[in-house]
Amino acid sequence: NIWRESSEEKKNPCTYLSCYWFYMYTNDSNREKVLGWIKKRGIFSKRYVFVPIVLWSHWSLLIFCNFGGSSPCMLLLDSLHTLGPLRLETLIRRLVLDIYETEDRPEDRNFVEKIPLLVPKVPQQRNGNECGVFVLYYINLFLESAPQSFSISSGYPYFMKEDWFTEEELERFYDRLEFLGIESSDSE
C-alpha cells in the first residue's frame, strides 16, 4: 500500500479520497452520502488532496492544492491526453462547489469557477490498460516530491513535466505492485 509505505512526514500535508467516491458522486442517488463522507474527512485542512477519478473505464488523478489557503488550484493528471481530460471540468467544479456548500463555507459558484484547473503534460501510457498504474505512480511520486508550498504563479511543481519519470522507473514500480499482489486494470 503506497500510503502505508510513505513516512508520516510525507503524508502529513496530504489526504486522499476513495477511488469509488468520485464515480458514486456522479450518481444523483449517492451524491449526498458521498458529500457527507467527504465532510467527515475535513479534506481542505490538508495542503494536498488526491482524488482518483474512475469514469468511462479510465483512471485520472485530480489533486486539490491549497484549498484551505488563499490560492487554491487543481491539478488534473491524465496518462491519456488524447481523451481530452478537460471533459471532466464541469463535474470537478460541481464537486468542489458541493463540498463548499456541504461544509457551510462562504465560497460561491463565481469563486469555484475562478479556481485554476491545470492539466500538466505528464508521461503518457502506451496501451489501453496502464491508466490505473499511472495514477498510483503519480500519487507515489507526488508524495515523495510534494513542495512545501505551491502557487500557480510560479508554474507547476518543478518535477511535474513530460519527463517526470522514465518507462524503466514505471516498469520497476509496476513490478513492485505485482510483487505486492496488485494487478492493473483499466476499469477496476
UniProtKB/TrEMBL annotation:
Transmembrane residue ranges: 48-69
PROSITE patterns associated with the record: ULP_PROTEASE
Keywords assigned: Hydrolase, Membrane, Protease, Thiol protease, Transmembrane, Transmembrane helix
GO cellular component term of the entry, any: nucleus
SUPFAM superfamilies: Cysteine proteinases
Residue span, Ubiquitin-like protease family profile domain: 1-142
GO molecular function: deSUMOylase activity; SUMO-specific endopeptidase activity
One of the Pfam families matching this protein, by short name: Peptidase_C48
Keyword Transit peptide attributed: no
Family from the record: Belongs to the peptidase C48 family.
Protein name: Ubiquitin-like protease family profile domain-containing protein
Organism: Erythranthe guttata (Yellow monkey flower)
